[in-house]
Amino acid sequence: MERVIALADMNSFFASCHQAENPGLEGKEVVVAGDPERRAGIVLACSYPCKTKGVKTGMALWEAKRLCPDAYYFKPEHSLYVKYSTRILKIMRDFTDLVEPFSIDEAFMDLTGVIHLFGPPVEIAAKIKNRIRSEVGVLCSIGIGPNKLIAKMAAGLQKPDGLTMLETVEDYRKVFYPRPVRDLFGVGPRYERHLSCLNIHTIGDLAGFPVEILKKRWGKNGEMLWYCARGVDHSPVALASLDTSRSVGRQKTLPRDLCGFAKIKVIIMELAEVVARRARQGGYVGKTVFFDSP
After folding, report:
1. Which run of H or of E encompasses 277?
2. What is the CATH number of the domain that holds 25?
3. What is the pTM of this model?
4. pLDDT band at 39 (very low <50, low <70, confident <90, very high)
């Protein structure tokens, strides 16, 4: 491979952090959920024993308790997750200085220049996984590929505690072209519905679709989806990727349901003011105003 990129994805990260803090919970049912008294009672993360019983991220807390009544339930502790994320990133940087945090529980690593130091890519990934497990107490799945997109897709193939290498773009296409288009990174339920109307049902369908039509429909986003479907990604592993905000948003969980635009308008104005103030403070200029409803 010209480039060797790895994506490390922590498995059930929030739940795993609580298990690492309480070793007696290893292998047991653990659920991290919001506070139901503040109407934020949804599941944020859960351990794999809970997942086997049907608990999912975004599920209502009452439903999770019905499926796993004897599980250990924790409210989210952001400072705890940041502490563990920082420790994990430090381990990754012991192998390469080219580490790009993608989220609190994911990070890209460019291993191209360190293979002569630590061995073949799979061996390096195995060493990283073992250190994260032994020193931090968290399992992770690692995907390896010739670019960030393929590494990200590969990391999702084997969970938990997986390690997958797709050495070439052709390897990626053999594995992913037959899969549903929803499996492609960047395709959510809305895109899936729109693509279905174009008779695009698999990643291979999207890769073979005329890109001009996609660009006409969705502009640069349509072109980007087409490139992703084909496994093409030239973006570098950027150390400062999180230093610049790509969007400014604000959300609020209300203590009760509101009816009537007059009452709702007050909340909208409050949220809009917070977003506008943050945008001004950051010196950002936006192109799109987006309202996300459930």
Report:
1. helix 261-282
2. 3.40.1170.60
3. 0.82
4. low
